[in-house]
Design brief:
The protein is built from three helices and no strands. The chain has 85 residues and is an all-alpha fold. The longest helix has 38 residues. The termini are far apart.
């Protein structure tokens, strides 16, 4: 779902919640435009984008942990002979 679809869905929900029979079409349109403009200014990401970022973060964290383990192994190898001397 892209950002435009999120905004359109939010506008549709607001329109569905408005008592259309009790307010004028102009007011309804103005409210929809205001909500759309407000949502457009927000930093909204889709669920798919969030999932991709979380996956990338998990991969980076796994690589970092592997590198930390390699560093510990190298440090223990280099410090072991010095301790024996």
């Amino acid at each position: 779902m892209n950002s435009t679809r999120v905004i359109e869905d939010a506008i549709r929900r607001v329109h569905e919640a408005l008592p259309v029979d009790e307010i004028g079409e102009d007011l309804r349109r103005n409210i929809g435009e205001a909500v759309g403009a407000a949502l457009g200014r927000m930093n909204i990401v889709t669920r798919e984008e969030l999932d991709r970022h979380l996956e990338t973060l998990a991969e980076a964290q796994a690589r970092m942990e592997a590198l930390e383990e390699r560093i510990r192994a190298i440090e223990s190898e280099t410090s072991a002979p010095a301790a024996d001397a």
